[in-house]
Design goal:
The structure holds five protein chains of five kinds. By secondary structure, chain C is mainly α. Chain C has three helices and no strands. Chain C is elongated, with a radius of gyration of 15 Å. Chain E folds into two domains: 299 residues, no CATH class; 480 residues, no CATH class. The chains are: A mainly alpha, B mainly alpha, C mainly alpha, D mainly alpha, E mainly alpha.
Chain lengths: 302, 123, 83, 236, 1042
Amino acid sequence: MNIFPRIVFVLLGLFIVLNWGLIMAGIIRKIIARLGMRRGIKVFQPYINLIKNYSIRSQLSHGVMFYLGPVFRLSGGVGIFLFMPLIYGSDYWSNFSFTGDLILITYFMFFGMLGMALGAGEGGHPYSAIGISRGLAQFTAIEVPMTLAILSIAIQYQTLSISEIVAAQQGGIQNWTMVTNPLATIAAMLSFLGAMGHSPFNVVMAPQENPVGPPTEYHGTFLGVLQTNRAILHVIEAVLYMNLFFGGASNWGVLIIKTFLIYFWSVFVGMVFPRFRVDQSIPWFLKIPLVIGIAAIVVFII
Amino acid sequence: MKIFELENISMAAGFLLLMVGIWGIISQRNIIKMIISFSIVDTSIHLLLVSIGYIRNRTAPIIGEGVTKTDAATQITDPVPQALVLTAIVIGVGITALLLTYSLKLYRHNRSLEINHFNSLKW
Amino acid sequence: MIQIILLIVMAVIMLVMAFIAIHHKSLQVAVIASGIISLFASVIYIFLAAPDVAITEASIGSALTVGIFFYILNKIRHEDIKK
Amino acid sequence: MKILRNSALLLIVGFMAWMMIHLYGQYESRDALNPVAEYYAVNGPEETGAANLVTSIVVTYRGLDTLGEVTILFLTAAIIGLLLRTEKGSRKKSVRESSEFLSTASGILIPVITLIGIYIFMNGHLTPGGGFQGGAVLASSFILVLLAISNKRIGHRLLDYTEAISGISFILLGILGILLAGGFLDNRILPLGNFGTLFSAGAIPVIYSLIGLKVGAELSNVILELNQIQGEEEEL
Amino acid sequence: MVNPIYIIAVLLGTAFLLGLFRKKGFEFGMALGMLAIAFAAVISVHWFIHLYSGTEGGLNIYTAGSKPPFSINLFMGVEESFFMSAINILGLLGFIYLFRAFREQGLKSSVLFLVLIMGMNVLIMSRDIFNLFVFLEIVSIALAGLIYLKRGKESAAAGFKYLIAIGVISAMLLIGISFFYLFAGTLNIDDYLQSNTLPVKGISVAIFLMLIAILLELKPFPANGWALDVYEAAHPGISAMISSGTATASIFLLYKLLPLSSLDWLPYLTVIGAVTFVGSNLLGIVQKNSNRLLGYSSIGQIGLMIAIIGLAPRLGDHFNFIFVSIFISHFLAKAGLFWISGIIMRSNIREWSVLRRNRLSLFMFGLFILMLIGFPPFPSFYGKWQLVMDLAQHKSFVWIAVILAGSFIEGIYLFRWFGYAMKEQDDEEKKIIFQWEKLIPPIVFSVLALGASYYTNNLSLLGPTLNLIPIYFILALFVLDFLPAFVKNSLVIAGMIIYSVLLYPSIADDTLRLIFGGIFMVGGVLTLFAGYSEKGKREGFFPFAVMMYAGLIGLIQAENLFQFFFSWEIMTLGSYILIIRGKKSMKHALNYMLFSLGGAYLIFIGFALSHIGQVTFDLQTLSSTILPGWTYTLIAIGFLTKTAAIGLHIWLPGAHAEAESDVSPMVSGILLKAGVFGLVLLFLLMGAEQAEQKNLLYILGWLGAITALGGNLMAVFQEDAKRLLAYSSVGNLGYILFALAFVTHVGWMTALTYSVNHFLFKTLLFLAIGGVVMRVKTHNMYEMGGLIKQMPLSFIAVLIGIITLAGIPPLAGYGGKWLFYNAVLSKGWYFQGMFIFFAGTIAFLYCFKLIYSVFLGQPKDKFRQVKEAPVWYLIPQIILIIGIMVFSARPDLLLKPVGTMLSQSNYFPTDPLNWENVTASTDLGYWSGYKIMLVIGVMFIILLSWLLLMSRKAQKIKQFNIVYAGERPFKPETTHFSHNMFSHFYKALGFLSIPVVSAFWNGLNSVTHSMAENTRKIYSGNGQTYIVHIMLYIIIIYMLMF
């Protein structure tokens, strides 16, 4: 396909994902509030926030890296979107996934994190750095079961291409990785909890309650960019898990349902469990999820 | 009568003396005593050497009374060890003199003649 | 035969002297004993047909060595007196 | 503790004895000269002209040993000098009155003893005795001189000159051997003369006399150095 | 030709003559003495030249006009003339050296010296056993006197001990000689040997006594306490004579008398020598007194020579070469070191730092030390090489191990000492005069050492093939050291560029060598650029920098094992000296050197094993070794030492961190690749089948994985920026190791990609951080902060560096990661792979810490005026960044040729990578570096524009203004959060970083030290005890032999 139509479809996809991300965030928060016997925000509150932030006029910049931080962050989110095939069997909705495979996406996640960390770092507020150090530390541990799960899938399907992994899961729920490789799925879903940063692994964001931290140091347009990114990223990460473990999506409807459910999983767990400290969460990831991950590989070696 | 011949006895005496000398060297802490033991060892070795050169019933290796030039080979004892002993004796004296001078020197430095007092250098 | 007996006697004396030289408390006695050893040795050399050696041993090994010994002993004693 | 130490040391002596018994056990009385000694016995008198074979061996065949031996005495004297030298380099003059008796006695004795010494080394090629023995006798006469006279500087210089000149002459004679005869220290640079007389055996009497002088000077030097210790050294 | 007997006559005559001189004639007397020794030296050298070049067998000198055995005869052969020349030259220089001592102690003392020389000459020439005894006594007595030259209590005690020990020994010798005469009927060596009769019964004991006495003269461990006291107490000029002179004579004596014995002495000699070599060196470890230390070393070296004599039958024709090369090294170096010791008059080895006040003596000191240890290009290196090779041919593995162990132990204390001289505090208060007459002898010996090295190179079996151009260049730089730094820097850069251009055609076809050669040479030039920022002369830097690069490039060029090893050692040496130049690097440089030395010896043994049964030393011989398991394991461990695999890594962090700013990138970014190159070469030569079969690879894989994890984990907890980078190098080398262990096409491609990547980003990072460190003068990151304003370019460099390091797309590092996944999946090493990936995420932690702590946050008050890093640091950084960018966009530029090369190597016939334009794909996945770069770039620009558009009115505020967060700290109290940043991580996983490895090596170290400390207690200082030792030694050897 030519490059221009592709760009059009990419932009279209991005638009859908962004909106779905914002709405999903609203819905989820509403659900949480209701479960907590509160009224909660409006479903469209994220839209309001976004528009408000983009239109705030008084803005401060601490320096170049502070400025670039959100760009990196958003590039990370958008980049993952760009390299991710969205809809199975549709060339239109496969974005730029031909340039790289699963590994690319795994590693590109760091791109945004790094930029964010640096940007927040330049803000000069110590809590930013504390939050980042916690986040990074926890992330190392999260990555282990995730890697094992990815390896397990790669062994299972003998490919690293996401499109091919999705293709291999077609033909009914019995072909989903969730069923054919439950151990890898469990490991990956556990690490997904950490990756989403909800309770009990939300210690990274804890400085917010002080009430400072990486996102709060940013404001105005910068915060708007970050919120945009968050909306995109939540959806696209869910899409990744969907593609890998839950049979992908053959149309937008399926995609929306599946991503919602996947995302809701993390929120749901967070409502039930109390928060971990970082030095607790790291060993936790290196115990049960690790064992499950190893088991997922051992199954395929034997 | 292998054992009770002159050369055997003197050689045995030499060996015994050597042992006594060695005993003296390693057992006596007084350095003068050690030097005396050294000179005993020297004497014992000289005795051994001369015994080695001795041939029964022969005379000293000097041509003159009783020894003719022509028959010297069957009449005299071995001159070589004697020549060696001469040298060895002089060397022995030299070393003894040196040892004694050193002992005097050591005495001046340490006010002692005990060998185990000169151990400032070690390890 | 007499020679042999004499030799044995001298050898025994030498050994006794050697023990005296090593174990006697007085250094002077020890030095004299060692001189006697040399002296007897030089007699044995004559028995063993080595007159050259005998003379040398007597003059250098015995007399001169003992002399030097006494010289040094004297000096050492002198040191003690002086200090 | 002492018993333990001594028995351990005795054990060492025992082992040494055991080693020496091996040597002794191999010893058998000799009944003939070995080829080397036989050569000396047969050809020695002819080649060197000396009646005393020990002398011929000491002075010529094994002359290099003798040179070394003389050197050792020389070294000894030098080392004793070095060791006992006071830091300032100047020796305290010890002025001691010689007793009347000693000076008279030595007046008679010194020439006699010196003559005996000279006789011994001059006749070294004929009779028992030679340079070393004669040298020792000379040294004893020197001790008498030492006791008799009080000015020792002269004695010291004399000794040094005697020592150096006799030593160098010894070497020069040796070199003459290379140039005129068969090799270093060959005695045939002088005619062998009549066998058994004083002036025979080529250079042997000369060399032996030089050895005698040198040994005498060296031994005297040793004694002199020892005598000059003044015990004033205050070293570390 | 002058009859050599004139040597004796002249020396002795002069000695007698000097007895006449009084104080006034001192100068004249000294001149005479000097002339006499010079005469002896000239004659002996003349004889040597004549006999060596001619066909004559030598000259028999008869005395007394009759033939031996009836008279004493001397023999002047080529060996005799060689050793005599050595002794006489030594004597001449020693005489000059002792000028002042002689003046203080009187001319009589110089007489002793002359006689000593004379005695040694005769000892070498004489063929008569009793004559040997007499002159041995002369030598001993002369020494006994000279020992007191220094005067004092210690000298007197040492002299006395020496005399009584020699007394016992010579008594044994004389008994032996007496009974030898009784049984053999002759005193002449030749006569006895020619008699051809069966050995007489009983003579063996006599000969035993003679030989053991000579052996004891050589001070075998442990019957050598007296000798050590002498070395310590005597005047250094005399110690030099003992160590180099009398030892030479004695060992020649042993060599001469050895044929007398019908018993097989040789195995015993080997054991005695080896025990002495190892034992003496071991005790040297705990020695603090320099002269005594030199004594231990001397005894050790003589032990080695004894062992070589014992091993002679296995060495065959090479014996002479080996012996002489070891001998000459010991001879020159030991005398030189003793002489230097006498110049500086410091007895504690720590105080040798005064050497730094005189460059020349420091240079000579280093030269002699290296010569002793056996570094190239000194003769001992060639000697040890040949020795080990020949021993391997006879499968004498135990001896190889013992000899190298001894050499290693020697290296420990010699390099520690060298470190003290280079780095220990120098008490400026104490004055020191470098007297000219004392400097002459060591200078002459240094020149002789260099000459001997050149000559050995020509003489050795492989030498002339060596490429000497770099060596000459290094020497020229030593000479030109007075020039300003920038001139020399330009010279070196020009030299390297020219050499690279010349080199290029020869390696253009060989991709492997091209890659590593490129890393070494391009990297070399780039890192040298940073050197332009140094002011002044920068003495002693450039020769060693070139030495390191010469070694590296030598590895590339090496055609045979010898050249490879030669280059390896040269490289190690150069880098060691570069590292030790750092401020606090003394201890670390020592660690580095010891690990390198140990590794080099393992490689050495491996090479020797592979040489078994081979004629040539061609590199290909590695592929047909008969002991593949041992060969490959040893060589691999050797290379792993250089790549700092975990367990062998403890030298790296300190060495790399404490080195100078521009040296760190050299050693970290470039030097480490030498080990990688070695491993690649090894695997290539091993051949695929060999490699596959071995469990070795599996172990190597795990080792790599654990190294990666351990290295990165340690890096996270560092506060020192350079140390962090150094640990990161450990981790990165772990990746490379792991990938190499795959021995698959894609695995190797990963390893090579990683090598290039690591070179690019680690050099970049070290340069950038080095530039920062130059400005802020500290390594501690928590003391920095907010430097982005002052050093924007450095910040960008570090940013690019860490993105590459962490493997984040789109930069080149990601290529490595992608290949990694493919490699792991195709090989099936999932769990090791998991370690690696875990390590990869951990890397992220320290990357952040590095860039954040240094550049972001709030700046410290004192660093607000610092400038950007020097421009000479920035230029290479920019070039490296360009390199990273090019390589990120077009990885095919590298990967395609590598793939082709690997396919051609008969090793991995199929290339699993398919290229479609610039998109690579495997069975598993695909990757298009160019397109990724494009997509991300375009997207980034769009988003940036979007933000710029939206926030165009943003107001710029200072770093201290964090008012939005509700905080406004006072300026000096910054809120920079940096120290102990990952404490929570430490709580969770810190237990993995407990330094067990350091604990192990420290434990080993302390065990060795306490062993040495306890063993040396046998040297109680009591002369009688020493005699008991001697007797026990005789008894024990006797019991062993009979």
